[in-house]
Amino acid sequence: MSKQDYMNTSVQEPPLDYSFRSIHVIQDLISEEPRTGLRPLRHSKSGKSLTQSLRLNNNVLNDLRDFNHVISQLLEHPENLAWIDLSFNDLTSIDPVLTTFFNLSVLYLHGNGIQHLGEVNKLAILPRLRSLTLHGNPIEEEKGYRQYVLCALPRITTFDFSGITKADRTTAEVWKRLNVKPKKIRIKRDVL
Questions:
Q1: Nearest CA to 135 among 124, 145, 147, 121?
Q2: pLDDT for the residue 38
Q3: Chain centroid to CA 7
Q4: DSSP class of residue 49?
Q5: What is the pTM for the complete model shown?
Q6: How far apart are CA 143 and CA 139, in angstroms?
Q7: DSSP 8-state symbol, 34
Q8: pLDDT digits (tens, 9 = 90+) for 126-184
Q9: Residues with Cβ within 8 Å of residue 65, at least 6 apart in sequence
Q10: Rounded CA separation 83/51 (Å)
Q11: Which has the closest alpha carbon to 154: 183, 126, 192, 116?
Q12: Do 71 and 100 touch, CB atoms closer than 8 A?
């Protein structure tokens, strides 16, 4: 199958689903059987899945060590991964490995233990990210949570399963002007 054929068909493929498997470490995916859905998963000649979607929700993952390595063993084209569900795990931060998937457009991280709002900044590098969930994490309790995320990720169109309106964008910009201090520019002066 050519890469073009893959791009045309895999969007329609069901996700590779490892949800509700009590998975503790990413390496367990290799020995674990994915859940079966209504439609069967298609595989390449090498036996790897032809999907762009991955469900890892409702497990007990607390880090994503070896994520790239394991995903490359499961997916024929891991670089085309567009949808990852890591909701309801034990993640306390946003692992930088997620920022290596430049085609990622949907990322579910709700119901974890992410504690620092600044973690969201890591995701700004993802050019196609349009949908993000973070509700149910400790960061949701921080003042300006929604506005901060909308400022940090101006390209997203849905956040916590809610569409982002023009009013949301305006509110976020006002919040940013009131709460984010501009970086000071230091001018070096030659001392004679």
A1: 145
A2: 84
A3: 20
A4: B
A5: 0.89
A6: 9
A7: P
A8: 999 999 999 999 999 999 999 999 999 999 999 999 999 999 999 999 999 998 776 66
A9: 25, 26
A10: 10
A11: 126
A12: no
